[in-house]
Amino acid sequence: MVIKVLLLGGTFEARQLAKHLAGRDDMTVMLSLAGRTAQPVAQPVPARSGGFGGVDGLIRYLQEQRIGVLVDATHPYAAQISRNAAVAAEVTGVPLLGLRRPAWEEQPGDRWRRVADTTQAVAALGSDPRHVFVTLGRQEIRPFTGAPQHRYLVRSVDPIDPPLSLPRVDYLLDRGPFREAEERALLQAHRIDAVVAKNSGGTATYGKIAAARALGIEVVLLDRPDLPEGETVATVEAAIDWLAHRAASASMRGE
Ligand code: NAP
Fold first, then answer.
1. Could you tell me the distance, in angstroms and rounded to a whole number, from the CA of residue 34 to the centre of ligand 1?
2. What tens digit of pLDDT does each residue of 54-106 get?
3. Which of 1, 124, 128, 177 could make a disulfide contact with 251, Cβ separation 3.0–4.6 Å?
4. CATH number of the domain bearing residue 166
């Protein structure tokens, strides 16, 4: 018996999980990406790209493709697709596992300010001109145009298009991972005195947080959105175990 896994991805962990599952003979994996990135990295399993058409579209996909297990390994800020996954799993009875990176925790020496959204982040920067490093995606970055007194360094995977109508902004295109030493050099080179970021968790983008701590720089962190309840694991290894267990029980039941 081979179970079909739909893996909702777009994260480093989803790619890692796909890589580990690629050679197995007890399951096949379809990786689903939002399709936001112009040049996505190569994936180790078959992949589809783009929305399903809301929760109804996802329900239809699960049924038509006879998906046996749904894994939500999306980014912690991609709350809509996680909500859709929870509803679709409930409606179809397809078991759902969430693979969720734990959030970063404040460490001694950190100067964090937590805010609910980008608008609050802009307010938290204050009225005096600052040198701000922004690592948010193009979907959430527009409110910074309301604070043209600052100089910005904006890093994103894809170009911010159209560019922000701000007098002083530099753009950096990079997808990481980012190491602390390089992040420290970047913050110093641009004389950054505030970082605005999401609490993404994991190691790939933690370098800027550690670098800001080392340099005594303030970090304005966007709170994570609420995500649906349900069965979750925090690591790729735990997700593999969970899936292997599912595949074994499905096989015993002759599904
Ligand atoms: P979202 O608000 O949760 O998703 C919006 C819609 O995009 C979903 O309703 C779905 O469309 C589609 N979608 C999202 N992920 C999908 C997937 N894996 N497969 C197929 N369709 C998917 O997420 P978002 O708009 O992409 O991003 C929200 C936040 O997460 C942003 O802060 C962004 O920077 C961050 N983020 C997202 C990703 C990512 O891969 N999505 C990666 C890194 C960071 P339908 O309703 O039509 O199915």
1. 5
2. 999 999 999 999 999 999 999 999 999 999 999 999 999 999 999 999 999 99
3. 1
4. 3.40.50.720
- Shared domain for 115 and 178, answered yes or no, is yes
Neighbours of 102 (CB within 10 A): 11
DSSP secondary structure, 196-218, as one string: EEE---SSTTTHHHHHHHHHT-E
Q: Domain total for the chain?
A: 2
Q: What is the pLDDT of residue 250?
A: 79
Are 47 and 21 in contact by the 8 Å Cβ rule? The answer is: no
Quick: pLDDT tens for 114-123. 999 999 999 9
State the distance from the centre of ligand 1 to the C-alpha of 24, rounded, in angstroms: 28
Return d(Cα 157, Cα 137) in angstroms, integer.
Answer: 8
Task: Report the SS3 class of residue 225.
Answer: coil
Task: State the pLDDT at residue 131.
Answer: 98
Determine which residue's CA is closest to atom 1 belonging to ligand 1: 78
40 lines ligand 1 (CB under 6 A): no
Mean pLDDT (the chain) is 95
Q: Is residue 171 located within the same domain as residue 88?
A: no
Domain of residue 23 covers 3-102+226-253
- Which segments of the chain have a pLDDT < 50? none
- Tell which atom from ligand 1 comes closest to the C-alpha of 11: 42
Q: Are residues 70 and 146 in the same domain?
A: no
**Ligand 1 pocket residue status of 54, Cβ below 6 Å:** yes
Q: Check pocket membership of 139 for ligand 1, CB cut-off 6 A.
A: yes
